[in-house]
Each structure stands twice: as structure tokens, then as C-alpha cells.
Design a protein that fits this description.
The chain is mainly beta. It is 0% helix and 52% strand. The chain is built from no helices and 27 strands. The protein is globular.
């Protein structure tokens, strides 16, 4: 489904799985509805004045999502409104964003490695933390009391929340640690790295359980299935790897025509949304701006 006229940076499902949003270099956000196994573009949201680099949905309200942009703002959207319900000015070009599991706080990171914590109800910044290392991706744990950052040295930094006191640092990869994702069951989290490995970690013990090594290029994006049984990972390889979490065995691979930097499993079905840096088939100089779905049988 083509929704944009430039590359798509981010895709994410609403918590009830009825809607999918996409953020693009073309400064817009696409909103899709899911009907059976197809998505239909409902709305294109405009408001940002620069690239929309990442977005995420409210963890329990299926009508709200937030976008991070290079225009030095974040915008909160409600699917019932045609315009953003709030725009929050930040101090730099924003590249990553996440919503706390309790729904109260939005964390946004910028290119200068400053992470700002915004009150999701008042839309006012309530804390900020400047880091001395390259911050790549940020996430709360599922219980909302720890805050994780992946960094340019291959490490995972863990802070207490809300105190933001450094607790520990995990040496996860020998190269840049790019992305992090918690599984919905709360048992594991995974990281993807420039060393082309995905590592799976035990949340309680903070030890690495296994690595997945079928990709050849830096792992840019990872996603756990709704039940925590499958882990998808993507990169500049022309495939998306889908693995069984408990064994590391390959379940499937999705052939793609161009690098993928964003993937997202549906919150209750084996349906994977993704976007690639593919070109328009009639004009190879133009980005296709498409969002795609891959489905597995429900009994996998």
C-alpha cells in the first residue's frame, strides 16, 4: 500500500491492532485500517515540517499516537481528529521515541543524545537527561521501573525510573548496538547490532540467552510477535528473518526488494507490517513509500 512519496521510517500498530501508522521522510503520517488481511489508507496527517523519524502508539489507548520529527517537535495525534492535538517543542532533531507502559510519559531522544521526558497529559517536559555517549534507541521495561538505552559502543545502559540513576551497563555487542525491543510477556528483551547479530536477553537475570546470526548487515529493526514466540529482524539484507525465540530456529524468511529499517508484529495476530527503501516501479528515481504486510498461519 503506497502512502508516501518518500521512504517510510517507521511503522507501528495501535494496541488493539485495528490501525497501523507510518511515518515518512515526506513529513507526513499515514493512518491505515486493517480489514481482514489488507490495510487501507484512511488518513494522511500533515503538521511536521521535516522528516517523521519514529512513531509509537499509546500502550492502552488505541486512538492516540505520537511522532518524533527532525523539525525539533513531537506531535501527539488522536485518530478522531484531523490535526495533531498537541505539538511539543524540543531542543534538537528527534530520532527516537517511546511511550511508557503506564501511558503517563513519552520519552524522546535527539541527535545530540539528549533524552526528554514529556508528561503525556499536560504535554510539558518534566525531565531531561544529556548522555555522553551515542544513544540509538530507548525503551522502558514492561513494568515501567527501568529505562534502557542502546549505545554506539555496543552497550545497553539501564537506568532506574523515574529517578534516572545509572544502575548497570551490559556489554551486548562488539559494535554499535542499534535497536531494542521487549517481548510482550516480559520474559525477554532483544537487541540488534551493527555486527549483524540479534541477541536475546533474560529480563530478570540480565544475561544473554542466545544470538541469532542469519543476517549479514547491521540489524536496524526487530519485533516480537504478540505471544513472544517469534522474533523478526531486518537490515540491509534482502530478507526479513523470522525466528523461534526459544530455539533460535528459522521459522520463515520474507524476501524483500530493498533494505528494511522498520518492522512491527500485529498485537494479536501473526501479521508483520514492514516498509522497505524500495523505488517506484515506474520511476526508479522516486521512493515508492509503501507499507507492506506479511502473514503467517495462526497455528505456527
Amino acid at each position: 500500500m503506497s502512502a508516501h512519496n518518500a521512504k517510510v521510517h517507521s511503522v507501528a500498530w495501535s494496541c488493539d491492532g485495528r490501525m497501523l501508522a507510518s511515518g515518512s521522510f515526506d513529513k507526513t503520517v499515514g493512518l491505515f485500517t486493517l480489514e481482514k488481511d489488507k490495510i487501507r489508507l484512511e488518513t494522511t496527517y500533515r503538521g511536521h515540517t521535516d522528516s517523521v523519524d519514529q512513531l509509537c502508539w499509546h500502550p492502552s489507548n488505541p486512538e492516540q499516537f505520537v511522532t518524533a520529527s527532525a523539525d525539533k517537535t513531537i506531535r501527539i495525534w488522536d485518530v478522531r481528529s484531523s490535526k495533531s492535538v498537541a505539538a511539543v517543542n524540543t531542543k534538537g532533531e528527534n530520532i527516537n521515541i517511546c511511550w511508557s507502559p503506564d501511558g503517563h510519559t513519552i520519552a524522546v531522544g535527539n541527535k545530540e543524545d539528549l533524552v526528554t521526558f514529556v508528561d503525556a497529559r499536560t504535554h510539558k517536559p518534566k525531565a531531561e537527561e544529556q548522555f555522553k555517549y551515542e544513544v540509538n534507541e530507548i525503551s522502558w521495561n514492561n513494568t515501567n521501573d527501568l529505562f534502557f538505552l542502546t549505545n554506539g559502543h555496543g552497550n545497553i545502559n539501564i537506568l532506574s525510573y523515574p529517578e534516572l540513576k545509572p544502575l548497570t551497563m551490559l556489554r551486548a555487542h562488539p559494535a554499535n548496538c542499534i535497536c531494542i525491543e521487549f517481548d510482550p510477556t516480559g520474559k525477554y528483551f532483544a537487541t540488534g547490532s551493527a555486527d549483524a547479530l540479534v541477541s536475546l536477553w533474560d529480563v530478570a537475570e540480565l544475561v544473554c540467552i542466545r544470538t541469532f546470526s542469519r543476517l549479514d548487515w547491521p540489524v536496524r529493526t526487530i519485533s516480537f510477535s504478540h505471544n513472544g514466540k517469534l522474533l523478526a529482524s531486518a537490515s540491509e539484507d534482502l530478507l526479513i528473518d523470522i525466528a523461534e525465540v526459544e530455539t533460535g530456529e528459522k521459522v520463515a524468511e520474507v524476501a524483500i526488494e530493498a533494505p528494511s529499517f522498520t518492522i512491527a508484529w500485529h498485537p494479536s495476530r501473526y501479521l508483520l507490517a514492514f516498509a522497505c527503501e524500495d523505488k517506484d516501479k515506474y520511476n526508479r528515481d522516486r521512493d515508492a513509500g509503501t507499507v507492506k504486510l506479511f502473514g503467517l498461519p495462526s497455528d505456527v
